[in-house]
Known about the structure:
The chain is mainly β. The chain has one helix spanning 54-59; strands spanning 3-10, 16-23, 30-38, 71-72, 75-76, 80-85, 98-103, 106-108, 111-115, 120-124, 130-135, 143-146, 152-155, 161-167, 175-181, 186-188, 194-200, 203-211, 215-223, 228-230, 233-235. The chain has a single domain (3-235), classed as Immunoglobulin-like (Sandwich).
Amino acid sequence: MKTRLLVAVAAFGAAGLFTTLDATPAEAGGEIKGKISFDGTAPTRRQVKMAADPQCEKANPDGRLGEVFVVNDGALQNVFVYVKEGVTGEHETPKEPVKFDQKGCMYSPHVLGAMVGQQILILNSDPTLHNVHSLPQNSKQFNSAMPMKGMTIKKRFTAPEIMVRMKCDVHPWMSAYVGVLDHPFFATSGADGTYTISGLPAGDYTIEAWHEKMGTRTQKVTVSDGGAATADFSFKPAG
């Protein structure tokens, strides 16, 4: 039987986008939980300048804040956490797509994960031209214009990579990152800084947490059959 792995991927502010992935481990698999913290005074989130496109300004009458450092009471959002070492065997590619939206002239979510070969359903929810330009090192790049509201395209990555940057050549402030793995054991920290990776067989694992500006942190954890392990991470800017 398959276990359902619920991965919380952060969207904007306190919102969250949830994607359900198929996993192949035994139903009695264990899990890893943790919280990502920011050590120190968080940088001020700056207003995104969207004056170059009136439609973008219209969609954000109160403005939008940058998403590089999203810190809520010391909890750090948009950190990609995944099992770096210890996973064995082959894992079925989920049939459900990962959804990636362009809404309010921002990418949603800002950080997400997908398995190799999994369909990524890209939407344009804005009444303005966007394009999605991927910059992988291990897969073929794509650069697709999406001029109409409601338009969708489907893409896949063919090889693992931490991380793939996505950008919009029309709106240079738009940026996002995709972690591509050959297994389903990954998550992204939410607004409260927490994450959960479920369905893991018993074993020893190396867990890595990635942030786009502050690099990576790693820990070794042991998961018992059906048990839960904890791996908290703390990030502090260099200098």
